[in-house]
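User: Hi! I'm a student and our assignment asks us to look at how structure tokens line up with a sequence. Could you show me two examples?

Assistant: Happy to help. In each example below, the sequence comes first and the structure tokens follow. Example one:
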Amino acid sequence: MVSRAREIRPDLALTVSATTRAPRTGEVDGVSYHFLTDDEFTRRVEAGEFLEWAQVHDHRYGTLVSEVTDRLSDGHSIILEIDVQGALNVRRRFPDAVLIFVEPPSQEILEKRLRDRGTEDESSIELRLADAKREMELASSYDVRIVNDDLDVAVADLLAAIRSYEMK
């Protein structure tokens, strides 16, 4: 969804998250994620280098402050593809941040999508589904909710929401 939106609006900046999980096939360090060891992640947390970070799906994920400040200095709107914990932490540090919650049409469709990806084992799928249920309970904390049922419609909704807030 974000990739499609950025094809239409290449001026939208996207941060690259950091993670302690291992790269999947085809993922590139510094492009897909900043892949960090547990020790390096901890060192950077202690050094205050993260805007937000959280334990998600048995690994740590976070957004480096440098990823945001570099893009803000260019004057671009920024997209952070982050979990609910991270988004709420960003809101605490940047009260004007616009939070957009992207949700599946149903839990069943989410499960099918996870299984069809073929990147997760059964225990990981179960963990992700349980986490998704908890995250859905926090969706009302967001400014905008988009149901990702039809990709073209969801992308149009995302771009409309971004435009709306850019005009304010």
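Example two works the same way, sequence first and then tokens:
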Amino acid sequence: MKTSRNLWPLGIMLALGLFAAGTVALIVIASSHKVDLVATDYYEQELQFQSQLERLNRTAPLGDEVKVAYDATTRRITISLPAGHANSDTAGRIHLYRPSTTGKDRELALNLDADGRQSVDAAALLPGLWKVRVHWTAQNQEYFADRSVLVGGTGS
């Protein structure tokens, strides 16, 4: 006499085993994935947000007078501020920020010429999107501009 064997219990145990193995694999992969904050002082920056809004509101009326441009032939980034801000009491910083790669940011002192321009060598920068953040003080008022440039080896 032939007895047929019921395979349902074996199939259910196999499905549960695969589910458990997949869950463990997902947990291992997720826990081994490195997650970095874009900035190491993220929380301190968040606390200073209100003063940043005031700087942005002060800069907004300047509009197109604040310019950031990349020249592919000379591989330089040119920052232009309003002519009224190009005097001896103007001080500030330029932050070249790479959103896609941590650790590649650069910070420079703001040294404007008489026309309110500064040129920055971009030859050592990785090709791709860079954010140029300019923070300056002129006439005892703080200003902030955030512009994006596309740095490329042959053109942008």
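Here is something you could point out in your write-up. The helical segments are 8-32, 42-47, 49-59.
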